[in-house]
Amino acid sequence: MAELVLEAACKRGWIDRGGRATDPMRGMRFGDGAPEYVGFLAEVLGSPEVEALRGDPQLLEAVTAVCGPGMAPIGADVCRITFPGEAHGTPAHQDGWYCKAPGLWIAWIPLVDCSRELGALEVAAPKPELADHDATGLIDVPDRGWRTMNCVPGDVLLFSGLTPHRSLPNRSADRPRLSLDLRFALEAP
Ligand SMILES: O=C(O)CCC(=O)C(=O)O
């Protein structure tokens, strides 16, 4: 999977063949709907590899064990590439604010070794309900209780649509952070 994403980024000139961010991409963060990022997402998320991962029996078993029965992939997925030198990570938010699927859970999957330096994900305790968001995310960002961890390809972090989460900025010298977030929700009865 990482190879597929690296190739998609490499052919767009975002990274070199050694997997390092190219100079123009340092500090870069794509805005929502940036055409070059939309094209990248269409290529990666429409690939047979990502489709196979959505239905991977081991992943579905883990999702069912954690989230309960009746969960299915909903295809509302993102492949993230964050570049070294970006000033901020992903702002704190709850996915349920944006994605109204019932019983929403997210499987966050690192595609490279992902340390705090590279911009690991942080999660806080799930809230009982959705909190107000503005254009950048949660308005009342918890000031304590954030947890993070180093993770590696093969790990999966599962969190619910009510879980506040954010990412740390990528402070590495030249490495992009690559990850997938796949969404699951209750199947219609
Ligand atoms: O990977 C990130 O930086 C953010 C992930 C995220 O917001 C999500 O999975 O909903």
Automatic annotation (TrEMBL):
GO molecular function, one term: dioxygenase activity
Keyword list, A-Z: Dioxygenase, Oxidoreductase
Residues making up the signal peptide according to the UniProt record: none
A Pfam short name: PhyH
Keyword Oxidoreductase: yes
UniProt KW DNA-binding keyword: no
Protein name, per record: Phytanoyl-CoA dioxygenase family protein
Organism: Roseibium sediminicola
